[in-house]
Amino acid sequence: MSEFNAVLRVRGLSKEHGSGESLVRAVDGVDLEVPTGQTLAVMGPSGCGKSTLLHLLGGLERPTRGETWLAGHRTDTAGERALARLRSRSVGFVFQAFHLIEELTAAENVELPALLAGRSARAARRRARLLLEQVGLADRSRHLPCELSGGQRQRVAMARALANEPLVLLADEPTGNLDTAATLDVLRLFQDLRGAGQTLVIVTHDERVAASADRLITMRDGRFVDDTQLAGSVGGLGGLAGWED
Amino acid sequence: MQDAILAMLAKEPAHGYDLGVRLRRALGPLGESMNAGQVYVTLGRLEKAGLVVHHRADGQPARPDRKVYELTEAGQRRVAAWLSELKLPKPDLVEFHLKVATASAGRLADPTELVAAQRHALRQRLHEVQRAVLGEPEGSTTGLLLEGIALRLQADLRWLDACDSVWANFENKSEEE
User: Fold this and answer.
1) Fewer CB atoms inside 10 Å of the end CB: C or N, chain A?
2) B84, B114, B130: which is the final residue of a domain?
């Protein structure tokens, strides 16, 4: 895999907090390439560094050591303004707690990133309408976040993350606050995005969310302890019916 | 499959072919590996057991799929018994548990490696089932079957997490002795 068809690429990536006796290596020298169109899930116990990894990949945090590329652009050495521009145009974020702006309607929340990226109000509105339709919330566009269920709020947050057609969507425990039905709705959306060629990185502790991905990395103590391509089992689903008669 | 076929015949007599189609439809993706022959083999066994009888459809050539099957009285009783019977699912954990326990006791293999291999296999299967769940339209009854299988696989994976932590500590203790 060359760096050109890898949307995300990191080499020797480390992030340390504190110093001396209290030094914590949240991410400890990892290498990773995420090819275009891949859905990657990252699992691991709390405190294993998976959220920090996601923040480093998206340029929300700076690494202590190592190199990061986003769509072929070096990001660990980029200046603050260049990094902010790259982040707003190329990366979409989805968080466990939704992080919607409570005073704005669903549609206004979705319009915001496009407006901040310098698009016209009309273009932002058109894009927001399209995205809310895509996530099945066209009829909720004028609702405030507090008038929506958890699942609906997360779908608004996903629409917002897609506002600027990001090269990669980074999701940190996107279903952590959702019940089973709302989780399935969000997973169906991820599946649609995957079908459309969207690159996704999903940090989760839910095996079923991880199982929806193409690839599953397990982290422990800041390192990758497993990296598996998910391809299904030998024999396929038919074997599950178990004909003994 | 025997009980399901009997239950399908409880409403009205049917061709073996129709029974196969209805079974496959009820199973969704899980029915894809089922071949038509299995239905006829099962019908043959049910007939031998006196639970169904067949007659040929009028004016049809003598082909096996022209046979129309119906329940006997014994067959009807068996359907009623099946519907009222309560069957608890088998947890199917004993064999794996014993494999790890004996491997650990005899130092035949590293328990945590056995757990890791099992986890890999379960995750590949869950991947397959989960994709199938997401491929079913909302509210589909075959989706419900897949959902149940996914939930069980998820429970098995949680159990492996418990196995992992206990067996890892167990090993450490025996090394200290």
Assistant:
1) N
2) B84
Chain A 189-218, residues with CB within 8 Å of chain B CB atoms? 191, 207-208, 210-213, 216
For residue A188, the enclosing domain spans 6-231
Token pair recorded at residue B102: 């004996």
- Residues of chain B with pLDDT > 90, as a percent, come to 66
Residues facing A199 on adjacent strands: A168
- Please report whether residue A237 resides in a domain: no
Mutate: best of B123, B151, B152, B159, partner A, most A CBs <10 A: B123
Give the domain extent around B69: 2-84
Pull the structure tokens for residue B24: 């496959």
What CATH number did the domain enclosing A155 receive? 3.40.50.300
Q: Is residue A241 part of a domain?
A: no
Q: What number of C-beta contacts closer than 8 Å exist between A and B? A: 80
CB contact under 8 A, A233 and B124: yes
Residue B60 sits in the same domain as residue B102: no
User: How far, in Å, CA of B142 to CA of A186, rounded?
Assistant: 20
Question: pLDDT digits over B69-111, tens only?
Answer: 999 999 999 999 999 999 888 878 999 999 999 999 999 999 9
